[in-house]
Amino acid sequence: MSDKYYRSTYLNVDLNAIVSNFQVFQTLHPNKTVMPVVKANGYGLGSIKIARQLMENGAEFFAVATLDEAIELRMHGINAKILVLGVIPTYNINKAIQHRVAITVPSKVWLAEAIEEIPTGNKKDLWLHAKLDTGMGRLGIKDVDEYKEVIDLIQSHDHLVFEGVFTHFACADEPGDSMNKQQAYFEGIVEQVEKPNYIHSQNSAGALMKDSQFCNTVRIGISLYGYYPSEYVKSKVKIHLKPSAQWISEVVQTKVLQTGESVSYGSIYTAKEPTKIGIIPVGYADGYPRMMTGFSVNVNGYQCEVIGKVCMDQTIIKIPEEVNTGDKVILMDHHSDSRQSAEALGRQQQTINYEVLCRLNRRLPRIYHGTQDLEIRNELLK
Prior knowledge:
This protein has 382 residues and is α/β, with parallel strands linked by helices. The chain contains twelve helices and 20 strands. The longest helix is centred in the first third of the chain and has 14 residues, at 15-28. Substrate binds at residues 138, 312.
């Protein structure tokens, strides 16, 4: 991983903010394990550096979506516990054992197939978390009989460890009683057998909105990075989170479009009068999609409209006379009330802040603040 980069755009990532958000949930849920979710490259901000920083501040158990993500953390020295929330192919079960990764059991059929893949004479433990489908309708076991059969199958094999059970809420970030109904269904099933060491149902929204005495672990994803799961959740809680990401670029060229001249693909923008424009070296390949046309970026405090079609690697903005080549551009800001907040970008893109962050491409250098010195990570120059 290189500490150099050669383009004029980058992400600022505030590690102190992420640690502060982690500690918010430790305070909200004392005596529980707070499990940071660092899937999707830490929601676009860099899973390795974030996991290291959180380990230094007490994190003991991380969650990811895939086995590859778990192995990536192991390859970079993350020795804390890791749970893969998604389903791994059964023929890769020995990789999970090799890298000491806990995995999700979505069904009895899956478990039986996975056991067949484990070599005779295996002496290493494999930690398993049963996933219950309590209303999300995706992965998981739906009825108590299958759940009991899964546990019996685990306990009948040496070196298989029934470590956890969990579910996932479908509507925790929305009004209504759905979350409470799912929690009650979850508890009703789990109560019928011996409880494992880790019981978890609450995601960011659930952990912000409610405390469950039944569970001893909370999984924190989007809110770890300082973002609320929805405007509804934000309006209902009095908990301050610190957004941790800022996307910066600069104006690399300015020019004046004369009346009648057009710019970018399709020539959808035509100047009605002499118009000064700036070129930014950022495009949809970086995670700034074509839907951003008509939005604005912040240049020296000026709100500058994105005009023409956003290109793969470049974006065009309409600028005042005071803006010049080399001026800093804020595409996404780390202030929640900014016109360039992740939520504002999400509204423009007709999506949610989660997707805005996850779209941030790995070719963007990340500059980490909050350690003793700034740390630059450029994944293209390994």
